[in-house]
Amino acid sequence: MSALEIATRVRSGERSAVSVAEETLTAIAARNADLNVFVHVEREQVLERAAAVDAEVAAGRDPGILAGVPVGLKDNLCQTGVPTTCGSRILAGWRPPYTATAVERLLAAGAVPVGKTNMDEFAMGSSTETSAYGPTRNPLDPTRVPGGSSGGSAAAVAAGMVPVSLGSDTGGSIRQPAALCGLVGIKPTYGLVSRYGLVAFASSLDQIGPLAHTVADAAATLEAIAGHDPRDSTSLPGPAPALVAHLDEGVAGRRIGIVRELVDGADPEVLAAVEAAAEVLAAAGATLSEVSIPELRLGLSAYYLIAPAEASSNLARYDGVRFGLRVAGSDVTEMYVATRTAGFGPEVKRRIMLGTYALSAGYYDAYYGQALKVRTVMIEAFARAYANADLLLGATAPTEAFALGAKVSDPMSMYLSDVFTIPTNLSGHAAISVPFGSGASGLPLGVQLLGPARSEERLVAAAAVVEAGRGVPGA
Ligand code: GLN
Question: Which domains does the chain have, with CATH numbers?
């Protein structure tokens, strides 16, 4: 059942939120040992919360548009008292004393957060294999990865445990796992969703967003969590956009550019899916054209300087004093070294070293400074493209879900999983991945629609057209 169907039934009193929560807990218990999707589930708290939603309905009050909807939370989203580990040993045992704004807004909309989902350590990865708590398996084929870093959030929805979950996207971590698990995933415009209570990876790139089976569920969830928050200084002004109201708007008259750089190098099945999605959009009245934005090729290089630079600074706070793990040493410096050596995994250490180097005296201008200039060049290139196009179209990921272990020893090939998603994080714009077509092994693929800042309304409308066209011949 979709999130919106659950909410309709709970709001009308036809179904109790407690029975929905019990079903969810049973579904998690049935498959979690095999798939390793949830790292923490607080059973009693979930049932109490669901009972509170039912009590609202019984009292004649409307709990909200997500009434009784079970939601999975990526384990970098804080909820008071609920363990938050970011897939890292260094945060083992840490329980945040506050709740993320996005989670507070889910609660205000009547949702029932059911637990924390597995993720790549500190969201660094594309397969959920860098988690200190073991890899998550793709429910559609457990020999394969679910993508990452929000792989647990994607697998939770794909396995039918929850209808919707929240992830975070710094370079593609919502859209890529959505594509690999056959789901819709939205990376909102930077600042649309508050980052308050999201454990920081790369603060100028991080955004929280939804993963769901349907465009409507993803849109409703984003609408619930978006909007200005004074607790995040980068939060955009104004209320949340009315996404659900725009779902049926269609694409008649829209100009959509198929971006060569966002399909080049993808598997032939991925190219075919993008072409078929373009046909669906054209049949619905959009004007499709081919465009080239060569600057997007610089994205991966710029990202792997900017994101590690910000991460090296953000992760300095894990010193064995304030959070989680502490490994004893004979003096404070030894304690720091021992804690960080034991607490961080190899990928996080690699990023801290890359970032520290890029920021060090003598190299700052050549690496970090240069990457910032490249970022500006890319933003200008996107602006030129959006002068002639309302939306852009490309692939989400270059391949279908790959085998567990296939890329762990080759960081470069892992980084290339995000070559089509990273440009949107660097520009701060919005993008959505919609399931469309299938790969050589029959696993789902995603196509990506991109739009300028605050284009979420037209993005969900176009995504709904693509979603409805999934069944057409060739798709
Ligand atoms: N895979 C990319 C990385 O490892 C993006 C991760 C993300 O979006 N959190 O940095």
Answer: 3-246 (3.90.1300.10), 255-299+373-465 (3.90.1300.10), 301-365 (no CATH)
